Amino acid sequence: MPVLSEDSGLHETLALLTSQLRPDSNHKEEMGFLKDVFSEKSLSYLMKIHEKLRYYERQSPTPVLHGAVALAEDVMEELQATSVHSDERELLQLLSTPHLRAMLMVHDTVAQKNFDPVLPPLPDNIDEDFDEESVKIVRLVKNKEPLGATIRRDEHSGAVVVARIMRGGAADRSGLVHVGDELREVNGITVLHKRPDEISQILAQSQGSITLKIIPATQEGKTSAGTEPLELLTYEEVARYQHQPSKRPRLVVLIGSLGARLHELKQKVVAESPQHFGVAVPHTTRPRKSHEKEGVEYHFVSKQAFEAGIHHNRFLEHGEYKENLYGTSLDAIHAVMAKNKVCLVDVEPDALRQLRTSEFKPYIIFVKPAIQEKRKMPPMSPACEDIAAPLDEEQREMSASAAFIDQHYGHLVDAVLVREDLQSAYSQLRALLESLSKDTHWVPISWVR
């Protein structure tokens, strides 16, 4: 019977076992199965790989030294002092090349097992008033972008808490800051007794790495019950801006909740002063009617051209109605502004992020209907006070729509217009438009740089 040596590997053992298998009438199926398994090539390859790995585990190529860079520098100093022969000069030149020096640095990193990233140390002055688990140190990387969070001061405790997280901002991307968290420090500066303008300045001036000391909310994502925000601060670097007559007018964007009737309001402004204001003419794929003119009611285009515009992101928003496409294009906005007119557009709030650029410098107006509770006098009770009737279903929907826009897009709005009737809403809008051309307004600082 063949004998295995001490150096024999597993695949040799398998080969020997296969050769030693003999037919057995009592275990014919089992013997056939074993022979098939031992003869499988993939198993043999796995055993060879296993053997190689075990070999390198026993005889791993350990580094001769852990400071190859330092040794190379020592050798270079010696050669610079006595480099006479051509071989010495060649060696000095090789050791001076960036690629070889980088390779030696990598060698030392591997030899010293310096693989884990080194995190900056935490601040030493952590308050002792809180348990270790209740204080969280958050380090964010923020360049010129805003932090992307709003805060409020709790009217009962005076604490500064996070009121809202802007989607896509630095705070949102980190996943470490949540609504209801209490803000204690910014870059080691306590904010508990700071004025709102001081807190805003600290955050606006913080660039690069910003360290926040916060106390997590009891219930993540919700503020304390019964508290109302006194002050809302949006941390976006801003600057004063006044429109110059030599520049193109700013874009005026109207967003509205249910019942705002923006189209009617927009058309009245243009009808009263067509030399100063204009609207972006929408595009459509439906056939033109006999009384319609190209470029007046609509730009009539083919479905292929419309879809090409969608593909190239030329439409601010678009939709389908009765198998026809409708949409507002960026080119239509540019066409109005090129005539040195104020362009008025009404869009869905989701389109605001695409418009908030230095090119358009949009002035965003949120229009919402006035919702008042109806009051009625109970019959036969002259001494009783009026009783407020509950809102009907339509009014509840209007109120919910306005609250949703205010919650999710309120930080982007420049002015709020409450519409009671067309004439009063028109007067408010004209006053806002006049102030837009005369007064200075706050805009993101990136728009004026």
TrEMBL record:
It comes from the Eukaryota. GO terms for cellular component: adherens junction; membrane. Gene3D superfamilies: 2.30.42.10, L27 domain, P-loop containing nucleotide triphosphate hydrolases. Residues 249-434 form the Guanylate kinase-like domain. InterPro entries: GK/Ca_channel_bsu (IPR008145), Guanylate_kin-like_dom (IPR008144), Guanylate_kinase_CS (IPR020590), L27_C (IPR014775), L27_dom (IPR004172), L27_dom_sf (IPR036892), MAGUK (IPR050716), P-loop_NTPase (IPR027417). Keywords: Cell junction, Membrane, Repeat, SH3 domain. PROSITE patterns: GUANYLATE_KINASE_1 (PS00856), GUANYLATE_KINASE_2 (PS50052), L27 (PS51022), PDZ (PS50106). This is Membrane palmitoylated protein 3. The lineage of its organism: Eukaryota, Metazoa, Chordata, Craniata, Vertebrata.
